[in-house]
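Example 5.3 — Gluconokinase
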Amino acid sequence: MAYSTVVVMGVSGVGKTTVARPLAERLGVPFAEADDFHSPANIAKMSAGTPLTDEDRQPWLEAIGGWLRERRADGDGAVVTCSALRRRYRDTLRAEAGGDVFFVHLTGSPALVGERIGQRTDHFMPPALLDSQLATLEPLEEDELGTALDVHPGPDRLVEAALAALRADG
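Solution (predicted C-alpha cells):
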C-alpha cells in the first residue's frame, strides 16, 4: 500500500478512534489520537460548549501534521484521528506531513452521531457542538486522496473497507 500515512476524519461521535486504532494495527504503523494534541485552552473552550475558531485550530493542526511528518521520516507512516472538517485544515495536515495523506472520512446521519455523542461519558466534546461541526464540514473533494465510509456497518467492516480503499488508491 502506497499510503501508510492516514487520517481518519469526521465529526465528533462517528467512531474515528474505534476505526483508526485497529486500522493502524493492521497497517503496522503508530497510532495517535488528535485530541491529545489540543491545548488546555482548546479543551476548556470545547468543554464549555464554545466552538473553536480557525485561529484556535491552526497550532493543533500543525502539531498533528508535524507528528505525521516525524512518523514518515522514521519510515513508519502512521494513522491519526482528526476531525479535519474543512479542506484548508486537510491542506494544513498535508503540508505539515510533507507528503501524501490518505483521508478516511467517516460519515453518519446526524441522529446516529448525536445518539453516540450522548452516550459518551469520557469525552470533553458536548453534544451541543455537533451542529456546528456539521455546518463546518466540507466533504472530501475529488482531488483529495481518500474515501468516505458510512459508519452504519460497524467498526470491523469499516476497517476492511478502509484497507480496501488504501489498496485501490495505492
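Remark. The chain has a mean pLDDT of 86.
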